[in-house]
């Protein structure tokens, strides 16, 4: 079946960097959009960035410039490079996939979700 799995979470100091990885498996077509979301306890899950198979991206305005997505289509793997981290970036980061090419940060448009990986940034 289709699965999405994240890796790479952990702890960092403010100003530091972390890289998250996400692999989507079980897709017979490579034409899928993959995205990162994050959720702070008590708050709604928010979009971070998305990328389609052709490299088109969507970023949340507040994170563009510090966060960057890239993708290895041969592995159906999406990466999130996070730089200049702030304590406010502390959250559980989720990867999601949808079998449609258009990028979107609307969480309701994603069918498959990973279990999440924790990112903790200390000041």
* Overall strand count: 11
Structural class by secondary-structure content: mainly beta
- Tell me, rounded to a whole number, the average pLDDT: 93
- Radius of gyration from the CA trace? 13 Å
Uncertain spans: none
| Element string (H = helix, E = strand) | EEEEEEEEEEE
Helix content: under 10%
User: What characterizes the major β-sheet?
Assistant: 7 strands, mixed
Taken from the alpha-carbon principal axes, the silhouette is: globular
- Multimeric organization: single chain
Q: Quote the beta fraction.
A: over 45%
| Number of helices, counting only DSSP H or I runs of 4 residues or more | 0
Description:
With 123 residues, this protein is mainly beta. Helix content is 0%, strand content 50%. It is built from no helices and 11 strands. Strands 2, 4, 5, 6, 9, 10 and 11 form a 7-stranded mixed beta sheet that branches. A 4-stranded antiparallel beta sheet has the order 1-3-8-7, with no helix packed on it. The N and C termini lie far apart (41 Å).
């Amino acid at each position: 079946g289709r699965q999405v799995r994240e890796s790479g979470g952990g702890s960092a100091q403010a100003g530091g960097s972390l890289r998250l990885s996400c692999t989507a498996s079980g897709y017979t077509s490579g034409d899928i959009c993959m995205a990162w979301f994050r959720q702070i306890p008590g708050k709604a899950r928010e979009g971070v960035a998305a990328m389609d198979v052709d490299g088109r991206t969507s970023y949340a305005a507040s994170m563009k410039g510090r966060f960057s997505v890239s993708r290895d289509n041969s592995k159906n793997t999406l990466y999130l490079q996070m730089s200049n981290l702030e304590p406010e970036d502390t959250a559980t980061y989720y990867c999601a996939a949808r079998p449609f090419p258009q990028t979107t940060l609307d969480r309701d448009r994603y069918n498959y979700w990973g279990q999440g990986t924790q990112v903790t940034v200390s000041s």
